[in-house]
Amino acid sequence: MFDFIRNHKRLMLICLVLFIVPGLGLVGIQGFHSFFSQDANVARVNGQPISRQEYDAALRDVLNQIRQISGKTPDAAEMSEIRTNVLDQLIQQRLVAAEAQRKRLTVSDASVRQAILSIPAIAPLIQPDGSIDSQQYRQLLAAQGMTPEQLDARVRHSLAAAQIAQSIAASAFAPEGAARRLNALLEQQREVQVRLFRPLDYEAKVQQTLLDDAQLKEYYDAHLSEFEVPETATIDYVVLSPEALAESFSPSEAELEKAYQDKIINDRSGEQIRARHILIARPPKSTAEARHQALEKARAVLARVRAQPERFAEIARAHSQDPGSAKQGGDLGYFGAGMMVKPFEEAAFKLKKNEISDLVESEFGYHIIQVTDIKPAVPPAFNAVKSRLIADLKKQYGAQSFSEAAERFSNLVYEQARRLNPAAERFGLKIQTAKVGHEPNPSLSATDPLNYPKFLEAVFSNQEVLNGKSNTAAVDIGGSTLIAAHVTHYQPSFRHAFESVKPHIRQKIIALHALEAARKEGESQLKVLRSTYATDGFSAPFKVSRMNPQGMPETALNTLFKTDTRRFPQYVGVKLGDESGGGYAIYRINAVRMPSLEPQKAEAIQRQLAQLTGQLEWDAYLASLRARSSVKMYPLPELNP
Q1: Which member of 6, 97, 214, 502 has the lowest number of beta carbons within 10 Å of its beta carbon?
Q2: Taking the CB of residue 262, how many other CB atoms lie within 10 A of it?
Q3: Which among 314, 308, 323 has a CA at the least distance from the CA of 356?
Q4: CA 336, CA 354: separation in Å to the nearest integer?
Q5: CB neighbours of residue 381 within 10 Å
Q6: pTM beyond cutoff 0.90
Q7: Which of 444-448, 498-502, 603-607 has the lowest mean pLDDT?
């Protein structure tokens, strides 16, 4: 039952969007305070921009997750809905983050660190002693276009915003009566029998009816669009992108050695320290007197720690106001650069082993820090990181050379208009072949370059291109990607001649007549059965419920459960859709069985309903928040795969 409730909250794809975008996944999203020019933005929320880069990264992550979960790529209609929902979620993130800041909601460093370490992509970097491999951590984030500081800020914002959502969800309530009604609705069973009238069973009889050419021609003339074949073009095409340029680049040994020195040997970010601290909290909205009292208390605790450093852990358990570490004597475990708030981190990394800091002020209050261990960074051997260095240099080359290459690529495609080879050879690109139509191909991904409308327009709108006398221009399809094509064969649109499709028309008319005969017979028999209550031709009895439909078509199930069952038997007729083979079905309802509801199950359903109620209240809160905020959206960019 609970799966049913969850699965019917929202459409599957929208559920994926709602789950992925706000989550703590590693997507290349810029920090909350980055600003871009308006033409690079997709929206502004209270004056704060949502960049195209951020939108593209979030959308790519959602699409990747959908492909992994469903095993298929969304179609054009689903893509439109997904793109809109991704933007809506990014806007909601901004609104809730701003509200959390306005309410001065804070999160402890320990909570942020725990949340970061629980991210699936980061969890494997945790070492047996509880520390994290800082070097791999930075490299992992860099590969996603992020720094540790940006991830820290994002997680901190998310956790603070989550406090608002949790407070709203906690207020949701569902009465026991609602749980009982829902249980009755979902688990009520109806004992039924079915009698089917299949079109296939009537085709033999229908085929005895002679169809002359005049009847076939009449159908042909009335359905000309069925026999239209749209124009197509067979093309050679090349795609220029940073990734394609990277593939054609091979760094030299000298470049690899230099990168090893710069990024590995001279990089001290892998150093880790273990520290403990005592926090004397300073409330964000405290008075000057309260702040003064917090400072005096911190000074007194510091004096006590300096006098008895061996009792640091004991003093921390007694006086620290950090709930995440006080019980552990203030121990924060091992951490590297970028994993704590800046003032704390700067002070901690200046300390020697067992040294105690002066008071360190952060947004949370006053910290007293003691470093208990230091792990110097140990650079890996050159051969151990060579493949990663090659990948980094290739990626760097592709990103840096794209702007210049794009201009040269566009010029070559235009200047060498009768072939793509010069452009392909100049940039090491592969010439690919495809057959395209004027409309996007539903069998391809909606984000495939060949489905980009401006590209297809470039292929089919110019007669010189269609005749193979000229390349298309280099078309910018977004995401730093250009595509150009050369038509090798053009097939204009045409209509199949009547003579060539006569067999198809004959079979189509027979199928339609068989369907009509099956439904007519079913409707006739339904009238007879409602007066005779006969059981001839029906299947053996079986039980169905909304939770267990036994493969019954949705249309039939809905009709069945809308039928009045004050007396038995009842007969209902349903026209079956193509997914059920067409035709007609008559269902005989023999009995209804109402479910029982144990107290434990009732409580579980109440919790589920409360969660749904909380979601509705959260949606209403977001709508109210958006209504009183300034939100401006720009046309959504296309996404390059």
Answers
A1: 214
A2: 11
A3: 308
A4: 17
A5: 9
A6: no
A7: 444-448
